[in-house]
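Need tokens for this chain, all 441 residues.
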Amino acid sequence: MSTAATANLLPEFERVSASLPGDARVAERRRAALARFAASGFPSQRDEAWRYTSTAGLARRKHSVAIDTPVNLARGRAALAAAGAWDGPQCVFVDGSHRPDLSNAVAAAGLRIRPFAAAVAEDGRIGERFAGWGGEELSPMISLNAAFAADGVVIDVADGAEHGEPLRLLFVMTADVRDRAVFPRVIVRAGQRSSLAVVEQYVGESAADGFTNTVTQIHAGEGARVTHYRLQDESPKAYHVGNLIVSQERASEVVSHSLSFGALLARQDIHIMLSGPESSVTLNGLYMAEGRQHVDHHTRIDHFEPTTRSEEYYKGILGGHGRGVFNGKVVVHQHAIKTDAQQSNKNLLLSNDAEVDTKPELEIYADDVKCAHGATVGQLDEDALFYLRSRGLDESAARALLTYAFAGDILGRLGIARLQKELAARIAGRLPGAAEFLEAV
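Here are the structure tokens for all 441 residues:
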């Protein structure tokens, strides 16, 4: 671990440990998680999974862990307004702290929603699971979250309960404190034959230079249907690292939408465990980077049982000196016969200085399977540009229209109309020359 990070984060833990939720057993597990992180430190480019992504700038920062830091509620309200209107239930967090005064999510029939800190205090088993779960070994960033996680949300859906109205979890970062670090933990437990949609959204003030290290755990019971949306649009000065871990039982169905637009460095790791026969998962992703932004997606899907299915569609749009990384790995284990796994990653480079590294992977240890993967990197089609210009569009508008069309099929997969419209306008707004068709989006 780098000297700077050790000198900062270890004393920070001692400073805030008494304020962290959980009993003595949870506290012990937190210390063990921190020790695992300290043994390896922030991942470096010597680690194969991080070879294209440098955390040197993140490791040099003097992080201020936001647990007992006062929240500037006025700035939080302003950032909340900028996140876009939401007419459904939502839980709001400002600088890592749950704000019941800004939230309106309430329990419903078969649905229980608890702030993470309260849930850990009420149920020691939750604390033992998040802080002692073996998945921490997958990444030092998960261990770091386990050590410091102070707030977030725990969502329980009863067997047979169906909730069609999406629940938004909005995490707002202000610029009130420099180098603020927050560690949200989201836990979703969907019972048998239940259904739920969750929108996890991260936004920040333009000057916010903080570090968000978040972990989301989803367990889909037998026959459950869970749709998860993850929108990352933090400040271009911020660092954002997220982990999504999903375990699925028989005949469950999970759909994940990962959309990344903000942060100086953004990384999302997704690990799916298809642990029940006939379970299925669909991963949709769209990422944009410009300026000096760096955006990284790593996915792993483990097919453990027969007749499981996975589909993966990711697209990247890179301009300026932006850099994108995609690594998608599918593992078909020995007994997972009749697996159907499809994976696609397509990337569009808008400048000569933009760069992308893409690496689709398949590991197959079973017979009688159907698997395919592919990746492409290219630029806008010159013939299509010529056609649009011949129809009266100037060059910037033609490029914007083609770029928007490239992203359109991923947006079309979103199941929430108001979310689709908001993101469509946001994408078009980032494309020079889009004014001619922006009103029609």
